[in-house]
Amino acid sequence: MIRRLLGLTLSVALAGCEGTQNALGGQGAEGANFIRLFTFFMVVCTVMYLLVIAGLAVALWRRRREGLTVEDRRHHQMSPVVRPALIVWTALIVIGLSVLVVASFFSDRSNAAHTRRPALTLTVTANQWWWDVRYDTADPSKIVRTANEIHLPVGVPVQVMFKSNDVIHSFWVPNLAGKQDLIPGRTTDVQLLPRTAGLYRGQCAEFCGIAHALMALDITVESKADFQRWYAAQLRPAAPPKTSLQLAGYRYATTRECATCHNIGGTPASGQVAPDLTHFASRRSIAAGTLPMNKGNLYGWIADPQSQKPGNRMPTVGLNAPELHALVAYLESLK
Ligand code: CUA
């Protein structure tokens, strides 16, 4: 029983330490800085705690040895070591707290220094329950728009601006940095400096409605060359349909319900209220990290989105089998 309980406690505690979503991963400059500060706080606080416990143990031991009671204390002389011990203890507390204040000040300064001149600026707009991602550039023809995924070049300082279209959400990629709220009517931001290439998972960290728990995003930190390749591919319009099945899917997607909400670059589908689908099939997941990207999940998602992610804003369109086959074939071609 105790072993089972211990196992359960440990597994819950360590659930936050999985590779792709790990607050102690430290793959970003801010995250690493925070872990250093956290460790320092832990060490200082542990030493203080042990000193308090040791003091308590000594007091208890003395009381037993001398057989003192509460009444005795009125007549009991203050031991000559008590006064200097109290002075040392007070000094220790003042020094300990001051050291912690100085450490957090420098940690904060160092975070700000990492990204004073961001080389890349993104705007992430939160929606119930997905992330709209835009890479901002001075040249409007070079703006990339995607959804529920962010690619970042390793070692490049990035500024991410945050907006929200509905309620308060919170952007959290534990491996890279701390949380930042996305607030309707306001712009907030976070500076990132990813230091280790890899795949990470971000998660909305502020309760924002029924599908809050299914509002994740995929972060890919890659070499500069890989990032530039990805960026160049994202700039291209959607791939034209190649087979007759894909063509049927293209016709459906661009003339029927899908086009009301979704944008597919280079086609007549130009809806703006749902995720951009121009390079949909190049992503790792469907529905903001809810399902891995594969054929089976695509069928399930389009046929009955509410059973996959209850409450989400995608209606059940009620496609017949040929329409569903065609649409899946077309969406899978949108690499
Ligand atoms: Cu968005 Cu929780």
- Cofactors, ions, other ligands: dinuclear copper ion
Element pattern in H and E: HEEHHHEEEEEEEEEEHHHEEHHH
Based on CA atoms alone, the radius of gyration comes out at 28 Å
Q: What's the number of helices?
A: 10
| Tertiary shape | elongated
Features:
335 residues, single chain, five-stranded mixed sheet, alpha+beta, binds dinuclear copper ion
Structure description:
With 335 residues, the protein is α+β, with helices and mostly antiparallel strands. The protein is built from ten helices and 14 strands. Strands 5-4-3-7-10 form a five-stranded mixed beta sheet. The chain has a five-stranded mixed beta sheet with strand order 6-12-11-8-9, covered by helices on one side. Helix 2 runs antiparallel to helix 4. The longest helix is centred in the N-terminal third of the chain and has 38 residues. The site of dinuclear copper ion has 9 residues, from loops.
What is the fold's blueprint, element by element?
Blueprint: H1 2-14, E1 17-18, E2 21-22, H2 29-66, H3 72-75, H4 82-114, E3 120-127, E4 130-136, E5 144-147, E6 149-153, E7 158-164, E8 169-172, E9 180-182, E10 188-192, E11 198-204, E12 216-222, H5 224-235, H6 244-255, H7 257-261, E13 285-286, E14 291-292, H8 295-303, H9 305-308, H10 321-333
Parallel strand pairs: 3-7, 6-12
Antiparallel strand pairs: 1-2, 3-4, 4-5, 7-10, 8-9, 8-11, 11-12, 13-14
Helix pairs in contact: 2-4, 6-10, 8-10
